[in-house]
User: Which sequence fits this backbone?
């Protein structure tokens, strides 16, 4: 918006309403950096230079976004090619019209390059819109970093009514978060609630439409948790993520109804004419409006001067506010028991989709149509609540497309429930070990599943800020979505590691025979390399379609690993491949996957690759791989005393004489015993 231009607004009401709305908009969406936006972030991971290819692409994409805002409230696009490719998107507030949207996006495009000069990733949030760009893919992916909490120039609070405000916010947020995530295509909802006899709190929730409903739900609930920490008792506050916004204020800041038709050019001219040539009937209005203008102008000046000071104070008082891996208060993820009971039809047998040592898994459907998987812990399971809380703390912090998402939980008396996203195509074991269904997994799909599991495990080991060791990676703990993308599930046995910790011991062995690394099965030593071993077994099972039928009661080495090693020595590795793949496979990829699987199941932990190396080896087909040595065929002795006593084991034995537990949506049904 050029200086002096009268913004076009879709407003209704009398003359003072029009003039005041115009003034408010002009102040909130100013023409220079610093007086229009709420907050911004610059990611200092990579910079570009003036007149570079990246800058040309950035200029191009910002111009395209500004033009697109005339026709839509959300838009994403790219410009250029890697390594100078730019990904960018904007999102306008769900209640604003396209004129305001375009003006806001234009201002954001100009301001963002000023406040984040020569940086390849940046985000900016206005009252009416947000805009971001990056040198990495950002579409359809939930990002909870970077973020901003609080509100510029926030100093007032609702003293004496904090508890009432908190109750009103909790109830209203719960409602609008569900509506934004699951009830609307634009992922936008507002709501109001009275919190004392005279005042009302106004709440708004919105997500970028490109993310899924479950991602939106998780993003907004995480925002709700952060608002509870940073802004308790404030008159207004906002939690701003790249993919979602959650705001409230005791003053109206959005339009409760759809905006009326645009203010015409003649109407704008009339407004200007009235200001220039006032008459007696307009004089009281003009005096009142002038007073408001002076007040708002002084407030804006105060805001500009105190912005930087308040930002520093906010960071000092809450230094971890941007730490996505901070433990989220579980109360913000809690579902009402009656809601879950209704969604599962009172936990009916018809809705039951799995059963294991922890309890049963049910499919639930909310009134919005959203499907979930509900894990109902056994009431007589001694350590159920401990495992339950452990899983909440762990899974709520993990954000990756190859991990099953925890949506929330419920506690009601003895009832302990976990609510997960519903994954459509059941678990991997129901496909690769089924003589009929295995034909549905061609080689391309199996290779995609292998790579997805590897990326999910890499995230657990290295890319999340808290190191996670799964300890029970197996085919029944890999779920497949409607596009056969893998999602790792069941973190009930995961062990939380600090960043610099690499190994730990346990006196209780938990896991599944056939997948457990020898150092873990024999001595209770587990590390990231224990998961690597399990991944290697799983990889060989996916390629071969055969289960690693290991039994600790047998000295026979005739299991999947020994077969693979024999084929390696004979130079006939393709004989290990599932026969259903014979007419449709890539010989080079199959051989490379078997090779990587053998590297992962080496008996010595130092000989096994890290998951980072595995992901690289799966992606780079031209690089030579190390030569594997003999894998750990079996625990190399059955002499009494070499194995921990049987009662020290807590695992699911899947031998040829025991029927494995299968599920249709196996969120977490590993048969366990208390540690």
Assistant:
């Amino acid at each position: 918006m050029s200086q002096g231009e009268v913004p076009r607004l879709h407003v209704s009401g009398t003359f003072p309403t029009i003039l005041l709305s115009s003034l408010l908009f002009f102040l909130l969406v100013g023409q220079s950096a610093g007086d229009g936006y709420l907050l911004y972030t610059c990611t200092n991971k990579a910079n570009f230079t003036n007149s570079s290819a990246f800058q040309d692409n950035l200029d191009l994409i910002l111009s395209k976004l500004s033009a697109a805002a005339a026709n839509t409230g959300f838009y994403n696009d790219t410009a250029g090619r890697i390594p100078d490719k730019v990904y960018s998107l904007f999102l306008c507030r769900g209640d604003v019209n396209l004129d305001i949207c375009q003006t806001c996006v234009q201002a954001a495009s100009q301001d963002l390059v000023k406040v984040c000069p020569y940086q390849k990733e940046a985000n900016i949030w206005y009252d009416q819109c947000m805009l971001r760009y990056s040198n990495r893919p950002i579409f359809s992916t939930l990002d909870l970093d970077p973020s901003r909490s609080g509100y510029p120039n926030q100093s007032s609070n609702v003293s004496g009514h904090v508890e009432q405000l908190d109750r009103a916010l909790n109830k209203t947020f719960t409602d609008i978060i569900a509506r934004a995530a699951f009830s609307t295509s634009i992922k936008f909802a507002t709501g109001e609630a009275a919190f004392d006899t005279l005042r009302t709190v106004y709440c708004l929730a919105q997500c970028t439409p490109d993310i899924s409903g479950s991602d939106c739900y998780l993003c907004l609930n995480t925002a709700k948790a952060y608002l509870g920490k940073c802004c308790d008792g404030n008159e207004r506050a906002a939690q701003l993520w790249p993919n979602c916004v959650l705001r409230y204020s005791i003053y109206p800041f959005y339009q409760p109804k759809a905006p009326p038709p645009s203010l015409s050019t003649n109407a704008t001219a009339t407004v200007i004419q009235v200001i220039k040539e006032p008459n007696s009937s307009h004089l009281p209005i003009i005096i009142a409006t002038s007073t408001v203008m002076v007040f708002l102008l002084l407030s804006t000046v105060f805001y500009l001067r105190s912005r930087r000071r308040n930002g520093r104070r906010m960071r000092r008082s809450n230094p971890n506010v941007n730490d996505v891996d901070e433990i989220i208060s579980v109360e913000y993820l809690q579902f009402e028991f009656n809601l879950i009971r209704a969604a599962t039809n009172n936990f009916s047998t018809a809705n039951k989709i799995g059963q294991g040592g922890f309890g049963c898994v049910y499919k639930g459907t909310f009134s919005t149509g959203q499907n979930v998987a509900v894990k109902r812990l056994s009431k007589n399971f001694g350590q159920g609540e401990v495992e339950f809380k452990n899983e909440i703390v762990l899974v709520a912090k993990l954000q990756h497309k190859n991990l099953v998402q925890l949506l929330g939980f419920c506690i009601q008396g003895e009832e302990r429930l976990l609510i997960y996203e519903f994954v459509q195509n059941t678990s991997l074991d129901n496909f690769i070990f089924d003589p009929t269904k295995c034909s549905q997994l061609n080689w391309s799909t199996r290779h995609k599943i292998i790579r997805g599991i590897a990326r999910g495990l890499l995230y657990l080991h290295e890319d999340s800020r808290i190191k996670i060791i799964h300890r029970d990676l197996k085919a029944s703990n890999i779920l497949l979505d409607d596009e056969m993308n893998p999602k790792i599930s069941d973190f009930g046995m995961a062990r939380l590691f600090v960043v610099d910790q690499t190994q730990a011991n346990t006196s209780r062995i938990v896991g599944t025979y056939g997948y457990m690394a020898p150092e873990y099965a024999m001595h209770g030593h587990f590390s990231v390399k224990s998961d690597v071993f399990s991944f290697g077994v799983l990889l060989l099972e996916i390629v071969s379609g055969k289960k690693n039928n290991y039994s600790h009661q047998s000295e026979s080495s005739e299991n999947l690993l020994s077969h693979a090693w024999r084929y390696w020595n004979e130079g006939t590795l393709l004989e290990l491949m599932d026969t259903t793949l014979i007419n449709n496979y890539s010989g080079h990829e199959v051989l490379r996957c078997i090779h990587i699987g053998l590297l992962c199941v080496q008996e010595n932990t130092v000989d096994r690759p890290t998951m980072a190396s595995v992901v690289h080896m799966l992606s780079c087909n031209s690089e030579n791989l190390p030569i594997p040595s003999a894998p750990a065929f079996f625990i190399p002795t059955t002499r009494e005393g070499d194995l921990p006593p049987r009662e020290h084991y807590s695992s699911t034995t899947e031998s040829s004489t025991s029927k494995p537990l299968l599920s249709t949506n196996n969120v977490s049904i590993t048969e366990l015993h208390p540690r």
Residues 429-636 form a domain with the Transferase(Phosphotransferase); domain 1 fold (CATH 1.10.510.10). The first helix runs from residue 15 to 28.
